[in-house]
Design a protein that fits this description.
- By secondary structure, this protein is of the alpha+beta class.
- The chain has three domains: 140 residues, 3-Layer(aba) Sandwich (Aminopeptidase); 98 residues, Translation factors (Elongation Factor Tu (Ef-tu), domain 3, Beta Barrel), CATH 2.40.30; 152 residues, 3-Layer(aba) Sandwich (Rossmann fold), CATH 3.40.50.
- Helix content is 22%, strand content 33%.
- The protein has nine helices and 23 strands.
- A seven-stranded mixed β-sheet has the order 1-2-3-4-5-7-6, with helices on both faces. The protein has a seven-stranded antiparallel β-sheet with strand order 11-10-14-8-9-13-12.
- Helix 8 runs parallel beside helix 9.
- The longest helix is centred in the N-terminal third of the chain and has 15 residues.
- It is globular.
- The structure holds flavin-adenine dinucleotide and FE2/S2 (inorganic) cluster.
- FE2/S2 (inorganic) cluster binds next to loops.
- Flavin-adenine dinucleotide binds next to strand 11, strand 13 and helix 5.
């Protein structure tokens, strides 16, 4: 659990910092910082002992991440990610629009950690540290944008799917599994009230100089039909990125990523992340060969690829969960990531449970607002209660979802 540090914690935090960083903040500096209302000093405590902390300060619309330290025995368990995400969320709530930090130029692990979390290198401070080492300064934007995005391209791609490429001014980048709400219908031709509500779509990938996004979609009703009618130069309303995406994979992770139909669009970023530090097999299922989306991008990754179609026109003849069962039997330690129709995710969760494997799903409940206000996307959770797919998800640990009551 992450919680605010108490005054009594400062000594322990100082010792943890000194054991990990050559220039960690001392006791007096930490005490001063803790007394300030603009400083965030939060700890992870396990069995009463502090095993990690984050120190950050907000100033105007910026947050500076000063230190994230994890006890050596608890590294590679996702605590650094959790502390960073926690600090960025808190800073976003406090009004920060961008985050900044500096990293030792020779610390390849730290540079990679922040790059994977959408920080970009923006400068270098020569001989910044006492040791004479340079510092790399990094930053990233925070929070969703709400803009009228220009349609760069919007076309069928030879499958039953379509690709919509949008230029989104101020796009802050998205974590794998995050989504946008699109108001379909170019303003010039269709009133914004038709349909009234925006439609959720996964961010398939970021393109251009980082300010363009691609959406992979199928026409399934009024909203997506209108989206398909938007031509180059038209405008589409975009709010995002929204929701909690997939956590970065662990070093050396084996993963089985299972996509069904348009659910495939949520998995490309996570497949790439796993491929960069572990071993990924992507299993894509659809009704027919023509319904298999995104094959070119998945083939371009360093991943294994298995296909299944219900009519047997490509890959295994049947459901994709059948090859998944075989893959899990061969590699029971693999993590399963799944996105697609609810019956497919339910079956994937059940198979993972049978093999004692962790399963993470990205739910696709219909949404109305996209940011936790209308309660329209509620998903039942084990033990009672609901999670809001737009705000608490769309990514959930499958073991927390009450599959029997999820429609
Ligand atoms: C987080 C998230 C990410 C998504 N990402 C993508 C994506 O990358 N590409 C893509 O094509 N679609 C995606 N979807 C599904 C997409 O939002 C729906 O297909 C879309 O809202 C349908 O709108 P419509 O007006 O065209 O259809 P509607 O007229 O609203 O519905 C037409 C048909 O589609 C069904 N439908 C509506 N919403 C959903 C849904 N959420 N899931 C499944 N069926 C639905 C309805 O039951 C109905 O049968 C995503 C949904 C969520 C929640
Ligand atoms: S879509 Fe409105 S609360 Fe989730």
């Amino acid at each position: 659990m992450i919680e605010a540090a108490a005054a009594a914690d400062l000594q322990q935090i100082t010792s943890l910092g000194a054991s990990s960083l050559p220039s960690a903040w001392g006791l007096d500096a930490l005490a001063d910082a803790q007394a300030r209302h603009d400083t965030l000093l939060e700890v992870v405590r396990e069995s009463g002992e502090i095993v990690g902390y984050v120190l950050a300060r907000c100033c105007a619309e910026e947050v500076e991440i000063h230190e994230i330290v994890i006890a050596p025995s608890r590294r590679r368990a996702g605590l650094g990610s959790a502390l960073l995400a926690h600090a960025l969320r808190a800073a976003g709530r406090a009004g920060a629009r961008s985050a900044h930090l500096e990293v030792r130029a020779n610390d390849a692990g730290a540079l990679r950690f922040y790059q994977e979390r959408r920080f970009r290198e923006i400068g270098r401070r020569p001989r910044y540290y006492r040791s004479g080492e340079d510092a790399i300064t990094m930053s990233r934007k925070l929070g969703p944008v709400r803009v009228d995005a220009e349609v760069v391209a919007n076309e069928a791609d030879g499958t039953t799917g379509r690709r919509l490429r949008l230029r989104v001014p101020g796009w802050p980048g998205a974590e794998p599994g995050q989504f946008v709400m699109l108001s379909p219908g170019p303003r010039t031709r269709v009133p914004r009230t038709d349909p009234l509500l925006p439609r959720p779509m996964a961010v398939y990938r970021t393109l251009g100089d980082g300010d363009e996004i691609e959406i992979l979609y199928k026409i399934s009703g009024r909203g997506t039909a209108l989206l398909a009618g938007a031509g180059s130069g038209d405008r589409v309303g975009v709010v995002g990125p929204l929701g909690r995406g997939f956590a970065p994979p662990a070093e050396g992770e084996h993963a089985l990523l299972v996509g069904g139909g348009t659910g495939t669009a949520s998995l490309l970023g996570q497949a790439a992340a796993v491929a960069s530090c572990g071993q990924a097999t992507v299993l894509l299922g659809a009704r027919t060969a023509g319904d298999l989306l995104g094959l070119a991008e998945f083939r371009a990754l360093n991943v294994g690829l298995e296909l299944a179609t219900e009519d047997g026109s490509a890959g295994h003849h049947g459901f994709i969960t059948e090859p998944l069962a075989k893959a899990l039997a061969a590699d029971p330690g693999a993590v399963v990531y799944a996105c697609g129709p609810t019956p497919m995710m339910r079956a994937a969760a059940e198979l993972a449970r049978e093999h004692d494997a962790r399963c993470v799903v990205s739910l696709e409940n219909p949404m109305a607002c996209g940011f936790g206000v209308c309660l329209g996307c509620a998903a039942p959770l084990v033990g009672g209660g609901f999670g809001l797919v737009c705000r608490d998800g769309p990514v959930f640990d499958a073991s927390t979802v009450d599959w029997g009551n999820l429609s």
